[in-house]
Specification:
The chain has three domains: 7-52, 434 Repressor (Amino-terminal Domain) (Orthogonal Bundle); 65-160 and 294-317, Rossmann fold, CATH 3.40.50; 163-289, Rossmann fold. The protein has a six-stranded mixed sheet with strand order 7-6-8-9-10-11, with helices on both faces. A five-stranded parallel sheet has the order 2-1-3-4-5, with helices on both faces. The chain is built from 13 helices and eleven strands. It has helices spanning 11-18, 22-30, 37-50, 55-59, 78-93, 106-117, 133-136, 163-176, 192-207, 225-235, 248-259, 278-283, 292-308, and strands at residues 68-73, 97-102, 123-126, 145-147, 156-158, 182-186, 216-218, 242-245, 270-274, 286-289, 320-322. Residues 9-63 form the HTH lacI-type domain.
Amino acid sequence: MSRRKFKMTTIIDLARLSQTSKSTVSRVITGKGYVSADKRKAILKAIKETNYIPNRVAQNLKSQQTKTIGFIAEDYFSIAGDFLNYFVKIAAKYDYNVNTYFTHNEKRELEVLNLLMSKSLDGVFILTTVNDWDKILPYTRFGPIATWKRLDSEKIYSSYVDHYPIYLQILNDLRNDGRTKVGHILNDSNSQNTVATVQAIKDFSKKYPEVNNDWQVFHHSGQSAHKMAAKKWLQEADSPKTIICYNDYEASGFMLELKKHHLILNRDYQLISFDNSHLSKVLGLTSVDLKIQQQAENSFFYLYNQLNDTKIPYHRIEPRIISNEL
């Protein structure tokens, strides 16, 4: 009796199913070269439907895991270093290595995600992303993905902390302290945390219209939020003496810009920021502790649990306002 041989899927089959060319399929698999979003989506769909496994992956299936997590960030910034440090420490505790990738652009980010597809990485953590999430979601087929970005998804874990309740608390505390005008330095308007923050401002203003919250500056790509805010604050005669800023880095920049004009924190104005990083401690900024260490550890716990079929419990995160006044 003859045995029917199992036919492995090839890139030629993928090209046919996705109605693309062999070279286009190859670019998606290797992560080298440009592929449009529509074609990439079609190819990843074909890979999923056929359970395609690249040859080099098939050769390494016995090892199952590389014990390596990819840590992706668009670029380096102050809090990224803190988050990475905490993430690497908890990973080492569980015998995992962390490879760090500062991607800078969409192409490089997808190249790193392809390492997940080729099983060169067991899982991926994304601190900040360049690509839209609809481009990233298909890669969850090849391994677990977690992020620090605020994202509501069943396939990608997000360790974000909702800014709405803590922002509302700050506004209430300021009102109780007699503040009648508050300024806001906010992140990009498309950021989900900014959306939550703006909603908190709207809800508070509706309840307490006597507190003026109209002074607002939003971060825009390619522009420095703290410089824009400082310029606006210095030019206007009736600028708010209390400002809430979305992170310590921009708050410290705003503070230093005003210092050039001999304006001193907690004498000429009050500043409240987010992250409670080393910057806030050094400069004496009141800052919201978002429990960065616990966020980093929760992100790793998700990846570890998915990879090892375990149930390490997550930290319960409760932000606190910390006074670092010198």
